[in-house]
Amino acid sequence: MGGELTSLFDRCCERCRHTLDERCEDWLACRTAGPFCHTDEVCSAAKTAVARRIAFGPGALVGVGQGDCGRGEGSGDVLDILRKNLPDERFEVVPTGCLGFCSAEPLVWVARPAEPVTLFGGITPDDAAGLAQRLLATEGWPEKTVAHLQPALAEERTFRDNRHLYTVEEAGGDFYPFYLDKQMRLVTAHCGLARPTNLDDYLMRTGLHPLFILLHHLTPEEALAILEEAGLESRITGEPIIPVWHNFAGAEGGVIRLDLSDGRANPSPLTRRLLEGIPFQVIESLLLVGLMTRTMRAEIVLPEEWTDLHHETVPTGELRQRYAPRGKLPEENLRAALERLRANGSVGENILGTDFSCTVELVREPSGDSEALEVDIETILNLPAIIEMGGGWFCGYGHGRHPGTKCILVGGPLTAKGFLELNLGTPLGDVVNLVCGGGSEGPILEAVIGRGGAVPAAKFDSILDLPDSESLPGPPSLGAPTLIHFRLTSGTPKEKPVAAEEAVEAALSPLTTLLVRYGGIPTPANLPPSVLLGWQMLGQRLHILVQGAGDGAEFVYAGQLARHLSRETPPEMARWASDLVNTLHSQS
Hints:
By secondary structure, the chain is an alpha/beta fold. It folds into four domains: about 55-195, 3-Layer(aba) Sandwich (Glutaredoxin), CATH 3.40.30.10; about 200-395, NADH-ubiquinone oxidoreductase 51kDa subunit (Rossmann fold, 3-Layer(aba) Sandwich); about 405-485, Ubiquitin-like (UB roll); about 500-585. It is built from 21 helices and 15 strands. It has helices spanning about 25-35, 40-55, 70, 75-85, 125-135, 200-205, 210-215, 220-230, 240-250, 270-275, 280-295, 320-325, 330-345, 375-380, 385-390, 390-395, 430-435, 500-520, 530-545, 550-565, 575-585; strands spanning about 60-65, 90-95, 110, 115-120, 145-150, 170, 255-260, 295-300, 360-365, 370-375, 405-410, 420-425, 445-450, 455, 485. The strands form three sheets. It has a six-stranded mixed sheet, with helices on both faces. Strand 13 and strand 14 form a beta hairpin. Helix 17 (about 430-435) packs across helix 20 (about 550-565).
């Protein structure tokens, strides 16, 4: 009969016929929802128990973000202190990847059965012992609460699909609602919530399900047709990937190559975050490419050296020495994930008991003896969700020209900043105002896009997009940035020109008249939280302008925000919104 299991991959009893050497197409579902090969209440209960322990530990599961920003702020010490102060019989404390909210690091989340996951921010090493005491007493910490996330475990014993954000509820803390409403996490759904090197955790988050779908239910041609319906394009060049993959399919001795070095000693911050947080997904995505192109070999080219991105910003002395050596964490997590998949039979010969074989090797130099299909990490990480959810589902994100999302890192003097995944077509002004809460020290006047040029506030209607081979009608495109740095000043001198001062004085009269006519900004009840927050932010900016503290760029800024909010305004505010947009536009 069944007994206590420690992993979803354990056989529940001697009658279980699913082994590494003998598998059927129900093997994966049997791991998470079975057993199916026999009926036994004891075995079913044992599987439920191990699934709950993966989701909640012995009573509560505590995750501590260990991305670059978190480690730079002391999250390694936070992890150690929580482990020391929380008893093993009630809590399991685990490291996770980056949750994306860099300005709220260190981040800690707590998952308990039948409760929303609570995310705490700004938990420094000095706060860690106090948080442990609150958790022991089952008390909250409202001032440190960033958000409440959806329940971790669904009835079918697998983690809920949280690709549209995390189904976030507003929290009562002092943090800006960074996760609320605007982010669309298709690629990074599990970043920061999954344990990067725990294969059981990955399996419960529908990991390996797309691979099983391709192995048992789709031909390579059918899978490519799904990607063609999705319109998946390279997140670097904007070119459709299907023609290239069709031409490569079946190339004798070919190799799929994911080059992480990119000619540099250290990969981009985006690449590091993805490797630290979801290495299993990276490897499964390569296997999916292999299946669709009938390629039996893949290689991941690693950089010669890794450096900790934040080793110059962490405190000096002992703390710097403690965190700087963690620069190789992306590679460590990738190697650990690959070894677990090999041991499980999910990489190598006869993958998961089928006729398909594909090796994955980690190398320092690209192999020069074979034709290579070059892929990039962000593009292929879309594959598992598309195979599982369908091409039409993917087309529901993005905009007319380009479907899907874009991952970016935003920095500068913002109220909230970090890693984002946003719909293609999102205006730069929305990134600043609605996602990141505007400037923390004043109005944002300029954005520096990657290593390229600067975009002034007057052009913040430019959208996140992919490169196009020709100029097309519509808002100007930012191309495919992975890094955007916002600034309080542009390249002009800090002194305001006399002409700008006169323009502000001339503009105050119609704006003030408008505010007096409407008695300020109307704020009807029952507005969605993000819309209400947007109007509150706009009110703050209008106050700055009325006091004469803003310049012409601030009018542009306020006008862009008002124009966006007017599209989500209830009927009773429609006239006010229209008048406000027209007034600000005439003065910008």
